[in-house]
Amino acid sequence: MKICVISFDFWGYDEHIVETLCNKGIDAHHIKMGSVTHSNFSERATNAVSKILLNKNLKTEKRLKYVLDSLEQLGYQDQILVLNPDTFDLSTLKQIRKYSHRLITYLYDSLDRMPVEKEKLNLFDKIFSFDIADTKKYGFEKLTNYIYLPHIKSEDQNPQMDVFYITSYDNKRVSFIKLLAKRLSKLNVKFQIMVIGKKGWAHQIQNIFIKIPEHLHVIFSIKKIPHAKLPSYYKKAKTLLDLTRENQYGLSFRVFEALSLEKKIITDNEFIKSYDFYNPNNILVLNETCSNLEKSFFESPYEKVPEDIYYKYTLDNWVNKIFALKI
Predict the structure, then answer these.
(1) What is the pLDDT of residue 191?
(2) Is residue 77 in a domain?
(3) Which end of the chain, N or C, is less packed with Cβ atoms under 10 Å?
């Protein structure tokens, strides 16, 4: 069987899908649009002028051409999975459609956040979504994100802090982080929060380290942390924090990273209570004021998730579902 995954893959999650397929003996390939950048300063300058004068993004066109050129080299596929369909124009998706009899997509984001035109969605044979609201509203098939990290028992780790969180810059999150940091400080809980993104430059100029007191801090940075290094940060904490974006109802990858490393979770996502792995000893859903966060949550041991429930959220099971593979 030949399967191709096409995506931007900003954070590097999608390469794990292809790796898992290959481990199953499938001829799988990843066309990563994000790897296509400007070759030199001249290309960047030309593109800047093109966007201003012609409202035309040459880098986007270069990436779409790369996708079609790559597909031409790979040839016809039994299945093609397109992630981030909002990044494609309709004509490119129609060309991709010709390379397989089964074209599927998985929506990492809600349509409220990342709209996809109906004409584009109609091209897909199957549409999966992580967002509960979208699955109910549009009839998409519900499928969560997945556990891609190897399982590491809590007793095999030696966490040095209570809470760790790394997130891209988002106004809603930053506002809530300030409130939460005060609560964590009051409880004398050791934590580290890293906010990554270009919009964080103003915070960097004002104060790169916001002390809350001395041994606690929130860090704003424009420098991206490599995806492969994230687990080393997670292992240093007992609990991972996960805050939603505006109009987000699905579970982020942070939840599944926490499951794989047997970490507790603090979140503002009420929908997590509807999942079979939910355990109030392991997962705390914050109220609007964070007043329900108590130090006792960090003091009780992690309670292990049953193996059969854990497997449901692994990438191995995820690819079986999305590509309708026989187990």
Answers:
(1) 93
(2) yes
(3) C
